[in-house]
Design a protein that fits this description.
Largest sheet: 7 strands, parallel
Strand order of the largest sheet: 8-7-6-9-10-11-12
Helix content: 25-40%
Shape: elongated
Distance between the termini: 43 Å
Number of helices: 11
Order of helices and strands: EHEHHEHEHEHHEHEEHEHEHEE
Number of strands: 12
Strand content: 15-25%
Radius of gyration: 22 Å
């Protein structure tokens, strides 16, 4: 009989509302495929810290493996995961393929998969529509003054509060992966002019103008709204710094649903306090959970959500 393939489901069960039902269905597909479920999840702080080396500051956050986890890692040939131990190749000698539950893979790359010859794939595009809707919701909420309307209602105050239309404005996209591709489609449906900062200069019917790696500030200077959705990498680390925010027109809006390491958070807070930006919306932070002492919590007209734009 052919030796079975052992597949590990390592992400938290609560992320899948029908986990047990789906697990039963998977196990029934082929008796040669053994499905084992054992959660391995690191704290958000360590996950966000594993994007860019060195990792010395987060090593103390990495949990010790339980016996059950060690047993599963010792047997699996492939897995679906959000996190992996740094020494995964030594504790999972049969591992050949890792499927990320999300689009981001920087925290998984730090486990040394490439050096061990372990294939890594992501789930890019799976949540692009939901996140694009979230981006548009934040933009519309700001321009239609939804927060002020809610405050008036909560105060039982009948007051006409008028917003602005976004049709005819310009949105600049940092990155053009599946998320910002979906944002571009929605933006065009709302009548926005679409600019894009990307590595490739290839034209796209959803983009009105493409800007290359040396032209970020030029693009930012033309935009009423900037939306970022880029992976974590040395090339994107701190890309939105004080100079980048200064290049944005006064009264413009910034939205980030990619990775928190893109942003110099002190610079963003200072820009908001100075009144240069009308608003900012962040669904990601450099350190997650966002520390209580972060200046972003007290910055004016900021919309903060806890990395939950996927639904």
């Amino acid at each position: 009989m052919t030796e079975s393939v052992v597949v590990g489901l390592l992400y938290p069960r609560e992320w899948n509302g029908d986990f047990e039902e789906d697990l039963s269905r998977l196990r029934a597909i082929d008796p040669r495929v053994e499905i084992v479920a054992e959660t391995y999840a690191e704290p958000e702080e360590s996950r966000s810290g594993r994007g860019v080396p060195p990792y010395d500051d987060i090593l103390h956050l990495i949990p010790e493996l339980t016996e059950a986890q060690r047993e599963v890692f010792s047997r699996i040939h492939c897995c679906i995961a959000i996190d992996l131990p740094f020494d995964v190749a030594s504790i999972a000698p049969n591992l050949r393929w890792v499927q990320s539950v999300g689009a981001g893979v920087a925290q998984l790359e730090s486990a040394g998969l490439g050096d061990a010859g372990i294939k890594l794939t992501n789930a890019a595009g799976v949540t692009s529509t939901a996140i694009a809707e979230f981006v548009m919701a934040r933009i519309l909420g700001e321009y239609k003054r939804a927060r002020h309307l809610d405050e008036a209602q909560n105060d039982a105050r009948w007051q006409s509060i008028f917003g602005e239309q976004i049709s005819g404005k310009t949105i600049a996209l940092i990155g053009f992966g599946p998320i910002n591709q979906a944002v571009a489609e929605l933006a065009r449906a709302f009548g926005l002019r679409v600019l894009c900062f990307r590595r490739s200069a290839a034209p796209d019917p959803r983009i009105d103008e493409v800007f290359g790696p040396d032209d970020l500030h030029e693009m930012l200077g033309q935009a009423d709204i900037t939306a970022s959705a880029v992976p974590e990498s040395p090339a994107t680390e701190g890309l939105m710094d004080a100079a980048a925010f200064a290049a944005m027109p006064a009264g413009s809006m910034f939205v980030n649903v990619g990775r928190g390491t893109l942003v110099d958070e002190d610079a963003l807070a200072a820009t908001l306090h100075a009144g240069h930006l009308r608003a900012a919306a962040i669904d990601v932070a450099r350190t997650e959970s966002l520390p209580s002492e972060s200046p972003l919590w007290t910055a004016p007209n900021i919309y903060i959500s806890a990395h939950c734009s996927t639904d």
